[in-house]
Amino acid sequence: MISFFQGEVQAIKPGHLVLVNGGFGLSIQVTVGTANQVRHGELVGLYTSLIVREDSLTLYGFLTEDERDTFNVLQTVSKIGPRTALQALEALTPDELRQAVISSDEKTLQRIPGIGKKSAQRMLIEIGDKLGTPTGNVKLGTTVSVAETEVIAGLVSLGYSEVSAQAAVEPFQGSDMNTSEMLRAALIQLGTNRG
């Protein structure tokens, strides 16, 4: 089991990093938030979880041990795999997840892409107290929204740099815009900046 990996950031792509150590590079799946916090050429250490499938070995990386442990607990819920668990950590911090589970807050859990009412109810039942109690770092509304994450990824796929995409989305952070509204506004912002 690879539980931690440290290396120099060789590449930053939407959804993953390539870290190199001793001439050996690993592609590690990460949240957009993690990718936004590292820089090319920087030495980074990630807590990791290796997911073994019949046709693949996929490494998921996190800046904190708490995020990695939360990721592993989320996968104990039936019908939640690593992709949804990673999306959960893009939408909510570990403490926000703990608070939502403790207070049986289905609406907060439904902010996770792919989690509807039934999935949220299943999470509440199956997670129980596995996540523990909040550590006091709950800051609702400070995480990147699902719409912001999707718009940044969409702009990058259209050929914009991640830095440009983030700058275009920044004026709309915390707004009630849905993904398509925010994408339209960000594209207008990018067009205006091109002059």
Automatic annotation (TrEMBL):
<dbReference type="InterPro" id="IPR010994">
    <property type="entry name" value="RuvA_2-like"/>
</dbReference>
<keyword id="KW-0067">ATP-binding</keyword>
<dbReference type="GO" id="GO:0006281">
    <property type="term" value="P:DNA repair"/>
</dbReference>
<dbReference type="InterPro" id="IPR036267">
    <property type="entry name" value="RuvA_C_sf"/>
</dbReference>
<dbReference type="GO" id="GO:0009379">
    <property type="term" value="C:Holliday junction helicase complex"/>
</dbReference>
<dbReference type="GO" id="GO:0016787">
    <property type="term" value="F:hydrolase activity"/>
</dbReference>
<dbReference type="Pfam" id="PF01330">
    <property type="entry name" value="RuvA_N"/>
</dbReference>
<keyword id="KW-0238">DNA-binding</keyword>
<dbReference type="InterPro" id="IPR003583">
    <property type="entry name" value="Hlx-hairpin-Hlx_DNA-bd_motif"/>
</dbReference>
<dbReference type="GO" id="GO:0006310">
    <property type="term" value="P:DNA recombination"/>
</dbReference>
<dbReference type="GO" id="GO:0005737">
    <property type="term" value="C:cytoplasm"/>
</dbReference>
<keyword id="KW-0347">Helicase</keyword>
<dbReference type="GO" id="GO:0048476">
    <property type="term" value="C:Holliday junction resolvase complex"/>
</dbReference>
<dbReference type="InterPro" id="IPR000085">
    <property type="entry name" value="RuvA"/>
</dbReference>
<keyword id="KW-0547">Nucleotide-binding</keyword>
<dbReference type="Pfam" id="PF14520">
    <property type="entry name" value="HHH_5"/>
</dbReference>
<dbReference type="InterPro" id="IPR011114">
    <property type="entry name" value="RuvA_C"/>
</dbReference>
<keyword id="KW-0234">DNA repair</keyword>
<dbReference type="InterPro" id="IPR013849">
    <property type="entry name" value="DNA_helicase_Holl-junc_RuvA_I"/>
</dbReference>
<feature type="region of interest" description="Domain III">
    <location>
        <begin position="150"/>
        <end position="195"/>
    </location>
</feature>
<keyword id="KW-0233">DNA recombination</keyword>
<feature type="domain" description="Helix-hairpin-helix DNA-binding motif class 1">
    <location>
        <begin position="107"/>
        <end position="126"/>
    </location>
</feature>
<keyword id="KW-0227">DNA damage</keyword>
<dbReference type="GO" id="GO:0005524">
    <property type="term" value="F:ATP binding"/>
</dbReference>
<dbReference type="Pfam" id="PF07499">
    <property type="entry name" value="RuvA_C"/>
</dbReference>
<comment type="function">
    <text>The RuvA-RuvB-RuvC complex processes Holliday junction (HJ) DNA during genetic recombination and DNA repair, while the RuvA-RuvB complex plays an important role in the rescue of blocked DNA replication forks via replication fork reversal (RFR). RuvA specifically binds to HJ cruciform DNA, conferring on it an open structure. The RuvB hexamer acts as an ATP-dependent pump, pulling dsDNA into and through the RuvAB complex. HJ branch migration allows RuvC to scan DNA until it finds its consensus sequence, where it cleaves and resolves the cruciform DNA.</text>
</comment>
<dbReference type="InterPro" id="IPR012340">
    <property type="entry name" value="NA-bd_OB-fold"/>
</dbReference>
<feature type="domain" description="Helix-hairpin-helix DNA-binding motif class 1">
    <location>
        <begin position="72"/>
        <end position="91"/>
    </location>
</feature>
<comment type="similarity">
    <text>Belongs to the RuvA family.</text>
</comment>
<dbReference type="GO" id="GO:0009378">
    <property type="term" value="F:four-way junction helicase activity"/>
</dbReference>
<comment type="subunit">
    <text>Homotetramer. Forms an RuvA(8)-RuvB(12)-Holliday junction (HJ) complex. HJ DNA is sandwiched between 2 RuvA tetramers; dsDNA enters through RuvA and exits via RuvB. An RuvB hexamer assembles on each DNA strand where it exits the tetramer. Each RuvB hexamer is contacted by two RuvA subunits (via domain III) on 2 adjacent RuvB subunits; this complex drives branch migration. In the full resolvosome a probable DNA-RuvA(4)-RuvB(12)-RuvC(2) complex forms which resolves the HJ.</text>
</comment>
<keyword id="KW-0378">Hydrolase</keyword>
<dbReference type="GO" id="GO:0000400">
    <property type="term" value="F:four-way junction DNA binding"/>
</dbReference>
<keyword id="KW-0963">Cytoplasm</keyword>
<protein>
    <recommendedName>
        <fullName>Holliday junction branch migration complex subunit RuvA</fullName>
    </recommendedName>
</protein>
